[in-house]
Write a structure and sequence with these properties.
The chain has about 250 residues and is α/β, with parallel strands linked by helices. The protein has helices spanning about 5-15, 25-45, 60-70, 80-90, 155-160, 180-185, 210-215, and strands spanning about 50-55, 75-80, 100, 105, 110-120, 145-150, 155, 170, 190-200, 225-230, 235-240.
């Protein structure tokens, strides 16, 4: 995909904003729901052998995907140990057919520092204060940010699925760490039939890839942008499909 072709594709995706009133938060949320529904419909059509949720929080997407892909290997990665412990106590993931793993997906194998963001304002007590969906391996750019740092297992997707056969679908929501996840999946990406990724158009975290960086990288792996939402002006989800996959739709 040439630079000109990519620019044209991204312009076409942005034109989709015309279907929503972006001044209305409910309309922005609707665009997000439409993108998610599209991605789920893609999985029903493509039937990938493996589904991976990166930045899973409570792994609700992985659980939902089990109903769409009854025969797939489904794995959800959550790096915050307080999230993982809390939701593992609430849900028997193994019984639901989901491998819910405590690990940060990154570009190197081995322990990594995960930065749990302390929210501003009143905090609950104890471990409940550390249950958060806005934490990351990356630091925020704002000076107000305060963290509790924990060491967690880190792994590349390439290592996590070494020797695993079949194609993949990826759902990536890692609070700015898209670069690390994608660079840790260099060998896997050519086998990814489709992926949905949350990306930022403005730098919220240090050392992060932006929308333009992700969209420049993935076509080299055969993945082309086909849809996006407008959940937020500077943070939104984009769906990519493998060029070879299009013939199966």
């Amino acid at each position: 995909m040439s630079g000109t072709q990519l620019a044209a594709a991204l312009l076409q995706l942005t034109a989709g904003a015309g279907f929503y009133d972006l001044a209305d938060p409910a309309e922005r949320a609707l665009s997000r729901d439409h993108a998610r529904d599209l991605f789920l419909d893609l999985q029903a059509a493509l039937r990938p052998a493996n589904f991976v949720e990166a930045g899973a929080f409570n792994a609700v997407t992985a659980l939902r995907m089990r109903g769409v892909l009854p025969d797939a290997r489904i794995t959800a990665f959550e790096a915050n140990p307080y999230n993982h412990a809390a939701f593992s106590a609430e849900q028997d993931f193994a019984a639901r057919g989901v491998d819910y793993r405590l690990a940060a997906l990154t570009d190197a194998d081995g322990p990594v520092t995960f930065r749990i963001l302390r929210e501003r304002g009143p905090q609950p007590d104890g471990d409940a204060a550390l249950i958060s969906w806005r934490s990351s391996i990356l630091s925020r750019t704002e000076g107000w940010a305060r963290y509790v740092d924990v060491e967690v297992p880190g792994t590349r997707l390439d290592a996590a699925f070494a020797g695993v056969a079949g194609d993949f679908a990826l759902w990536i929501d890692v609070e700015g760490a898209a670069r690390q996840v994608l660079l840790g999946a260099e060998g896997l990406l050519p086998r990814v039939a489709s992926l949905m990724i949350e990306i930022e158009a403005r730098r919220f975290r240090q050392d992060q890839w932006l929308y333009s960086d992700v969209c420049a990288h993935l076509p080299g792996k055969g993945l082309r942008p086909v849809a996006r939402d407008f959940e937020d002006e500077h943070q939104f989800n984009t769906v990519f499909v493998n060029a070879a996959t299009s013939a199966r739709l």
